[in-house]
Automatic annotation (TrEMBL):
Domain of life: Bacteria
Listed name of the protein: Esterase
InterPro entries (UniProt xref): AB_hydrolase_fold (IPR029058), Esterase_phb (IPR010126), Plant_Biomass_Hydrol_Est (IPR050955)
Native source species: Caballeronia zhejiangensis
An annotated Gene Ontology molecular function: hydrolase activity
PANTHER family (UniProt xref): BLL1128 PROTEIN, UNNAMED PRODUCT-RELATED
GO cellular component: extracellular region
Lineage of source species: Bacteria, Pseudomonadati, Pseudomonadota, Betaproteobacteria, Burkholderiales
Annotated keywords: Hydrolase, Signal
């Protein structure tokens, strides 16, 4: 399973389209989850990777995304030892926050340092994949 975190001013559809991760998942038989930062939480839909309270294993957005990930692992019977997280921009920074404390069940983090592409990827539907919204876990 791969958890993909969008950047600021993006949504799950943007990162799914830009990375073509849904197509790769179908071709190779794995699950992709796309938590979404709520506009009610941050007007730019930016993950709060920079706030101390959102970097802890037990609190904030880091904890919420990890809980959502565990829920998807359980619901879809995914292998919990093979859960990875990646993201773009603010999502990449949050991926690092998630990956560092390994007790939260995530294994690897990768930060994509891609600047200026915040609106380069149009949203859309992708073969029936439904984005998983982070605010579901609250």
């Amino acid at each position: 399973m791969i958890v993909m975190l969008h950047g600021a001013q993006q949504d799950p559809e943007d990162i799914a389209a830009g990375t073509e991760m849904n197509e790769a998942a179908e071709a190779h038989g794995y699950i992709v989850a796309y938590p979404e930062q709520s506009e009610n939480t941050n007007l730019l839909k930016c993950w709060h990777w920079f706030r101390a309270g959102d970097q802890s294993r037990e609190t904030g957005e880091t904890s919420m995304i990890a809980a959502l990930t565990r829920e998807v692992v359980s619901d879809y019977n995914a292998d919990p030892s093979r859960v990875f997280v990646a993201g773009m921009s603010a999502g990449g920074a949050m991926a690092v926050n998630l990956a560092v404390p390994r007790e939260n069940g995530l294994s690897v983090g990768e930060q994509w340092l891609v600047h200026g592409l915040g609106h380069a990827w149009p949203g859309g539907t992708h073969k029936g994949h439904t984005p998983i919204r982070a605010d579901r876990a609250q």
